[in-house]
Amino acid sequence: MSPAPGPFRPGFWRSPLRGPWLTAALGSVLLVLVTIVAVTGFLSHAAYEPDLPSNAVVPRDADLPLTFFSWPTGPPWLYALNQGLHVNVGLVAVPVLLAKLWSVIPRLFAWPPVASPAQGIERLAIALLVSSAIFEFVTGIMNAQYWYAFHFNFVIAHYYGAVVFVASLVLHVAVKSPAILHAYRTRGWLKPLRDDLAHTRPEPADEHGGLVPVDPDPPTLSRRGLIAFVGAGSAALLVANMGETLGGPFRPLAFLAPRREDFPVNKTAARAGVTRDMVGAAYRLRLAGGGDEVSLSRAELLAQPQHTARLPIACVEGWTTTQEWTGVRLSELARLAGIERPDGAFVRSLQPAGILAKTSLDGDAVRDPDALLALKVNGADLPLDHGFPARIIVPALPGVHNTKWVGSIEFGSEA
Amino acid sequence: MSRVYGASPLHLLAHLALMPLAGWAILQVLEGRTAVRIVVWLVAAAVVHDLVVLPLYSGADRAARTFTGAAVNYVRVPAGLSLLMLAVFFGTIAGRGEGGYRAVSGLSYEGYATRWLLASAGLFAVSGAVYLLRGGSRS
Question: Left if phi > 0, otherwise alpha if psi is -120 to 50, otherwise beta: which for A358?
């Protein structure tokens, strides 16, 4: 066999910190973080209730059978919490992922590249793991910043990318668990963190791993120093962003977050193609489901019993805004439409096109006492960009399903 | 079997059990209109990180060690954090997401580059202060 070239050469990688324990430690932290991100991601997919008409973005029968439960309407901050975790824990995980990949880079340059069928199949699986991990982070982060340079459907790509990621991650953890446990047993769970720089030594040579350098540089950083560096990176990204999730006094602190407004507009009326004429004196809300269609002007809606609720709008992108909404309960509108026991609703916006012009709500969402067709926000008429003359607001519903500029609601009935 | 395969049969079974799930997801993507773009981004993700990003920051780190010697961490840490913020929030700092942002909100991204520069300057300032407090200038 010819001698290994360049980075394939033993001795090319020289960091004295690399070794099975460091990789196990970084991997363990990363595993906890990406588990939170993955679980909240799949929960968000379920929260969109993709099995109801018009709700699916990922083709309806081509997703995993994980959407069998109906997303609850309480507590009202549930979706805000879910997406706050998804996006902010995702950001926290970025430096940990980078450090983890740095810690195992010598393995990319193993020589010979494939020594056995087992190694070949494992390397293929790891290629999928690394690719899908970076792909998920890059697309998620770009999407939250409205940077759509990828020119493909984000939701679909991010969903299937997540499936590839989770499958290859579960496999990786299963395959590596003996090596992880061995590293912890022989080196101690946290013991290497006790070493300051003067006591930082390379880990004992690992015969098969290839992580411990054969020709190490002197250390410039202790292992705890490296982990503190990674933690500082996570903290910086968290501080720079999480104000958009927490809101209130924290919002101005989110100095790099894409959403720094107190009451963000997710789509302007101009962009949605909704004009003043469409929402003027001629506006009528059409209610259907129980027989004859009912038609109500905004004045007639204001004459119905009004209910006020303080509810968040939480975007899939991780920002949240909590406002005080006033309007007519959806269950009351169902009654006006002739349905006493509604089991769902199909809402159409006046906006002429777009995937969110039509949305299905499930029975829980329609029956919740705080689920409203809001006419006012914070005591004033809804601004046009926030859905004047009337918009849906339902506790714990994904932000974009709170349809703006509602034109009609068709209620379904229980049995 | 182990001698030929190179690992225990469990290793093979684990791969045979889980790789089809990943394969199914990739097949779903391949049916879509933008399949080629998604696959290109998927492959580029690992290639760009492993063969461009990592060598670049490793090289920069090596250069920093040459210039700063034992004081490397006083440069490495603020520079690393600053570059991390730039990379992760490039869409807002460099305004790359501004078109999409304006489309949904009617607003534009204001002041992100300034705030990133100020945060970076603050990190270097704190690092310099710590260096002085530890008597670094005497060594």
Answer: beta
Say which of B14, B84, B90 has its CB closest to residue A175.
Answer: B14
Which residue is listed with tokens 């609850």? A72
A131 chain-B contacts, CB cut-off 8 A: 42-43, 45-46
| Residue pLDDT, tens place only, A150-208 | 999 999 999 999 999 999 999 999 999 999 999 999 999 999 999 999 999 999 988 77
**DSSP letters along B34-59, please?**
THHHHHHHHHHHHHHIIIIIHHHHHH
First to last CA, chain A: 75
Tell me if the bond preceding A106 is cis, omega within 30° of 0: no
Kindly state whether A110 is in contact with chain B, defined as any CB-CB distance less than 8 angstroms: no
The answer, for A265 touching chain B at a CB cutoff of 8 Å, is yes
ipTM: 0.96
Alpha carbon separation from A316 to A45, A79, A350, A370 (Å, rounded): 10, 8, 23, 21
Is the per-residue pLDDT at B1 higher than 70? no
Q: How far apart are CA B61 and CA A17, in angstroms?
A: 15
Peptide bond into A75 cis (omega under 30): yes
Residue A2: what pLDDT? 66
Mark residue A9 as left, alpha or beta (left: phi above 0; alpha: psi -120 to 50; beta: remaining). Answer: beta
With beta carbons less than 8 A apart as the criterion, state whether A34 and A169 touch.
yes
pLDDT digits (tens, 9 = 90+) for A239-293: 999 999 999 999 999 999 999 999 999 999 999 999 999 999 999 999 999 888 9
A275/B contact by beta carbon, under 8 A = no
Asked if B92 lies within 8 A of A145 by C-beta distance, the reply is yes
Residues of B within 8 A of A160 (CB-CB) are 25-26, 28-29, 38
Assess A271–B contact: CB distance below 8 Å, yes or no.
yes
pLDDT tens digits, one per residue of A284-295: 999 999 888 999
